[in-house]
Amino acid sequence: MISVRTGTGRILIGKQLLPQTGKRCRALGLFGRCAVISDTNVAALSSDRVKQSLAAADFQSTLITIPAGEKSKTLEQAGAICDQMIASGLDRQSFIVGLGGGVVGDISGFVAAIYHRGIPHVQVPTTLLAMVDSSIGGKTGVNTAAGKNLIGAVHPPSLVIDDVDLLKTLRQREFNQGFAEIIKHAIIADREMFETVVQHPKLRANESASSKLALLIKRNIRIKSAIVACDERDRTGERAILNFGHTVGHAIERAGDYRKFLHGEAVSLGIVAACAVSIKKAGLPPNQRDAIIVLLRQFYLPTHLPPNFPREKIFAALPHDKKFGGGKIRFVVTPHIGSAHITNDITFNDIREAVEVL
């Protein structure tokens, strides 16, 4: 097992950690009742084992399931979860276990932030994307008709349990999307990791690769945690560097009604667009852009939009993105693999040109 301490909690990475959930929560000093929040897909596979583990550690747990998918990330769904928690007798001494991917992590963390003005959140990510990205840093939230994660709170989990055995249950497409965030981290902060992933393009969620995956997850956690530590509340702008590829990626998700692309797939497309902008505005060498595209494709991530995709909806969604401040576009560019910075010197026309060639 690998243990990583962050500024706000602890992250455990390894095999067969799910049955230890209750014991780990007890060691954290948690007590009282808890809610296990999951989605309909994950709950059917893993919730019984989590509840049994919690019961063995003398916790009384209530399972609350939401429909799988981005459409569940709403204020209405968060309110319904709170109502079920109240009906089950959970109080300010209770805690939440979020069991699932990024959607479950976002909404369970948001509920933990607002229930009785804040209760502890334990996150058990079940996707690679959640392990390397969304479970780190404490950003929680729900979507609105205007955009993604526009309502939320910063509420870091007290404990994250990354059981790599859970990755074996993922469909290949779901597993692959996690590499969009891994490649993003490499582009903005770790050229050596970029080369490492290039050398291991056939990483899969199987027994033989579990140790390599655990080390790769740890490396990504350290990258994101270091960036988050400089700007935990996303106020100084330093944390915004993590948004490389996300300005266009989030707009693509919305334009596709959160159905056409998985989050990591949309980020992959956003990375390609950000590289095009970076060539024009930051001096990114075209051959490095090409290397990034080749690596994305090695994990079967999209690098072109379908011909009939509603591109105008992408442009309509852009102004609603959280990364627009004071009427200006805060866009992340990379001058070379392993480095990135934020600039306000990007126009809508620059982004339009990049999207039009996707």
Question: What is the element layout, followed by pairings?
Answer:
Elements: E1 2-5, E2 10-14, H1 21-27, E3 34-39, H2 40-56, E4 61-66, H3 75-87, E5 95-100, H4 102-114, E6 121-125, H5 128-134, E7 139-144, E8 147-154, E9 159-163, H6 172-189, H7 191-199, H8 210-229, H9 246-255, H10 263-281, H11 286-298, H12 311-317, E10 324-325, E11 328-329, E12 331-336, E13 339-343, H13 348-356
Parallel strand pairs: 2-9, 3-4, 3-5, 5-6, 6-9
Antiparallel strand pairs: 1-2, 7-8, 10-11, 12-13
Helix pairs in contact: 1-2, 3-4, 5-6, 5-8, 6-7, 6-10, 9-10, 9-12, 10-11, 10-13
What key attributes describe this structure?
single chain, 358 residues, alpha/beta, seven-stranded mixed sheet, two-stranded antiparallel ribbon
Put the structure in a nutshell.
Helices cover 45% and strands 18% of the residues. With 358 residues, the chain is an alpha/beta fold.
Outline the structure in words.
With 358 residues, this protein is of the alpha/beta class. The longest helix is centred in the middle third of the chain and has 20 residues. It has 13 helices and 13 strands. Helix content is 45%, strand content 18%.
- One letter per element, helices H and strands E, the order comes to EEHEHEHEHEHEEEHHHHHHHEEEEH
Structural class determined from secondary elements: alpha/beta
What percent of residues are in strands?
15-25%
Please compute the radius of gyration using only Cα atoms: 20 Å
Q: Main sheet?
A: 7 strands, mixed
Number of helices: 13
> Which strand order do you get reading across the main beta sheet?
1-2-9-6-5-3-4
Helical content stands at 40-55%
**Quaternary status of these chains?**
single chain
- Model regions low in confidence, pLDDT < 50 over at least 5 residues: none
- N-end to C-end Cα span: 41 Å
Shape: globular
Number of strands: 13
Q: Give the overall pLDDT as a whole number.
A: 92
